[in-house]
From TrEMBL:
<comment type="similarity">
    <text>Belongs to the peptidase M67A family.</text>
</comment>
<dbReference type="GO" id="GO:0008237">
    <property type="term" value="F:metallopeptidase activity"/>
</dbReference>
<dbReference type="GO" id="GO:0008541">
    <property type="term" value="C:proteasome regulatory particle, lid subcomplex"/>
</dbReference>
<dbReference type="InterPro" id="IPR033858">
    <property type="entry name" value="MPN_RPN7_8"/>
</dbReference>
<dbReference type="InterPro" id="IPR037518">
    <property type="entry name" value="MPN"/>
</dbReference>
<dbReference type="Pfam" id="PF13012">
    <property type="entry name" value="MitMem_reg"/>
</dbReference>
<feature type="region of interest" description="Disordered">
    <location>
        <begin position="298"/>
        <end position="353"/>
    </location>
</feature>
<dbReference type="GO" id="GO:0043161">
    <property type="term" value="P:proteasome-mediated ubiquitin-dependent protein catabolic process"/>
</dbReference>
<feature type="compositionally biased region" description="Basic and acidic residues">
    <location>
        <begin position="336"/>
        <end position="353"/>
    </location>
</feature>
<comment type="function">
    <text>Acts as a regulatory subunit of the 26S proteasome which is involved in the ATP-dependent degradation of ubiquitinated proteins.</text>
</comment>
<dbReference type="Pfam" id="PF01398">
    <property type="entry name" value="JAB"/>
</dbReference>
<keyword id="KW-0647">Proteasome</keyword>
<feature type="compositionally biased region" description="Basic and acidic residues">
    <location>
        <begin position="301"/>
        <end position="325"/>
    </location>
</feature>
<feature type="domain" description="MPN">
    <location>
        <begin position="17"/>
        <end position="153"/>
    </location>
</feature>
<dbReference type="GO" id="GO:0034515">
    <property type="term" value="C:proteasome storage granule"/>
</dbReference>
<dbReference type="InterPro" id="IPR000555">
    <property type="entry name" value="JAMM/MPN+_dom"/>
</dbReference>
<dbReference type="InterPro" id="IPR024969">
    <property type="entry name" value="EIF3F/CSN6-like_C"/>
</dbReference>
Length: 353
């Protein structure tokens, strides 16, 4: 059975890969321009730029590379290394801290020609990093898989062969990138979604990712058991550590055939459900109280409006009565004044006669 070297252990245990969101956007754009309208098996290839301090590999930038391969024969492929060298020199002039640290392709899985392509990139960096970026993920989780090529020594004394070893990868952004990502997500984010729904959605996605990982572990162990894959003691040791962290479900029973663990879980669940029920009940009562208060307030406002309207109408009626009374008084006074003037006009005439 083949075994791994000390280099493999150090890569698996210590080295971590951090990928910037800018790289993901660049790869998706590269795929949409080059392979989205072509065959489903067609992939895109590019170069990764960043920094590698031995423990953390920071992938901060990337650029696309012309790449062609035969779909029927994976051993036939073409990669323009002259283009890689010229673009690498140009990027050095822009940012000297970003160095060529590896390459990427759109996968979504490893291909037979990946080891040969990786050997080509050893011209530019001693231990190139391969990041497979799934541009069309079907499962929730991190869409990146990082690999390093290491020597695999066989127990039968035959020549050691190269193989890829998976290492942990995360999506990590700097402050400027976080602002840009938030700006892009603002248009697609559901503003109406509350904190509780967001937490439930995140937890659901986490459980889906966990379920996918458990399925992969099951498939791997099945292949090892059937002899299709060699025994890897590092992976088995990590799985044993995971199993040791699981709670002991074989606890003694506590009445009615129920174990202490299930009894404790039921008590805790009932307490949580009671708290949720009380909070929902209080929220409903508060909503009814607010509804009643709003109805009372609306009724008072309507009564005030009606009273003000009625008072205005009464004032208008009183004003009309006063105006009519003044007109009537002015009319009587006018007739009296006319009669007086006629009498004054007639008196001189009578005297002349």
């Amino acid at each position: 059975m083949p075994s791994t070297t000390t280099e493999t252990l150090s890569l698996v245990d210590e080295r971590k890969v951090s990928v910037a969101p800018l790289v993901l956007l660049s790869v998706v754009d590269h795929y949409n321009r080059g392979a989205s309208t072509s065959s489903k098996n067609k992939r895109v290839v590019g170069v990764l730029l960043g920094q590698n301090d031995g423990k953390v590999v920071r992938v901060s930038n990337s650029f696309a590379v012309p790449f062609e391969e035969d779909e029927k024969d994976p051993s036939v492929w073409f990669l323009d290394h002259n283009y890689i060298e010229s673009m690498n020199e140009m990027f050095k002039k822009v940012n000297a801290r970003e160095r060529l640290i590896g390459w990427y392709h759109s996968g979504p899985k490893l291909r037979a020609s990946d080891l040969k392509i990786n050997e080509l990139f050893k011209r530019y960096t001693p231990n190139p990093l391969l990041v497979i970026i799934d541009v069309q993920p079907k499962e929730a989780g991190v869409p990146t898989d990082a690999y390093f090529a290491v020597d695999e020594i066989k127990d039968d004394g035959t020549t050691a062969s190269k193989t890829f070893v998976n290492t942990a990868s995360i999506i990590e952004a700097e402050e400027a990138e976080e602002i840009g990502v938030e700006h892009l997500l603002r248009d697609i984010r559901d503003v109406a979604a509350g904190t509780l729904s967001t937490r439930v959605t995140n937890q659901l996605q986490s459980l889906q990712g966990l379920h996918l990982r458990l399925q992969n572990i099951q498939v791997y162990l099945k292949k090892v058991l059937d002899g299709k894959l060699p025994v890897n003691h590092v992976i088995l040791g990590n799985l044993q550590d995971v199993f040791n962290l699981l709670p002991n479900l074989s606890t003694p029973t506590k009445g009615k055939g129920e174990s202490e663990l299930s009894y404790a879980l039921n008590v805790k669940t009932n307490d949580q459900l009671m708290a949720i029920y009380l909070s929902s009940l209080i929220r409903a009562i508060t909503a009814f109280h607010d509804l009643i208060e709003n109805k009372i307030q609306n009724r008072q406002q309507q009564e005030e409006k009606d009273a003000a309207k009625k008072e205005g109408e009464e004032k208008e009626k009183d004003g009309e009565k006063k105006v009519n009374g003044e007109k009537a008084t002015n009319g009587v006074n006018g007739e009296v004044s006319k009669e007086g003037s006629e009498k004054k006009d007639d008196s001189p005439k009578d005297k002349k006669k």
